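note to self — DONT lose this again. spent like an hour looking for the file last time. sequence + predicted structure for the chain T wanted, 272 res
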Amino acid sequence: MNETAWLSGIDRFHRLRLAPAPTLSLIGRYQHPWENHTPEWRAFFEGRYGFERAPAPVLTWRLGATFEPLLALPVVVTRPCPRWKAPRPLMVMRYAGESEYVPLFDCDGAIAPEVIDRLSVLARAPETPRPAIPLPLTPDSPRPDEWLPGLKLLDPRLVWVLGEIQGAFPNKPVVIMSGYRPDAHTSFHKRGKALDLYVDGVPTEELYAFCRTLHDVGCGFYPNNRFIHFDVRPFGTGKVTWVDVAEPGAPSRYVDGWPGVLPAGTAWLGGG
């Protein structure tokens, strides 16, 4: 028995995906189980003394001639994406010389298969050997917060950030100078939520100005370095910007602005 046994009657040579509309309504309540997914007004009607409601579907298996689910989630065969609609892949490079074209999204606009794996490999900690792709299905690292030693899966919202960068600066390679840093002084690099990067052929001032247009994203400007810091933050954080004038390798030294980039008194002095 395995998690795909119920697909035994479907051609395995086709890529499959859950049909979004009916599926999300079924599985939504299983996401973040520690949160209450029922609004108060609905709880009244669905509560003990409310109107009779159908129970939540139970995802389980029963033993028969074949392993069949009690609840069959709707599945459709993914159709080939027409070339005119297919999103362009993004050239992503690692500071040490690795590079590959990464398709960020699929034909429907969802995150493309294996994109988290591939970007996480490019953003792995320094001096970490390159692992094989696809990554293992379960974590295999002595550290509980890593997927593999020196590798942490990136936050999916960083894929959105890279997609926005690609849209703003089309056909320009993105170079990741730093991603996951297990010993970083900030939690964003430790948690796989930050990338230090630059776009080939784009001035850092221009890239920094673009970063500041993104909501709930932290933006760090480093006049004496080539990269811009991007990190993804909780909804409602707003825009967080700072300027660090330290030389490469030196301790951070924050200022409240920078000529032509940020007016004095507008930069956050706490850094990233």
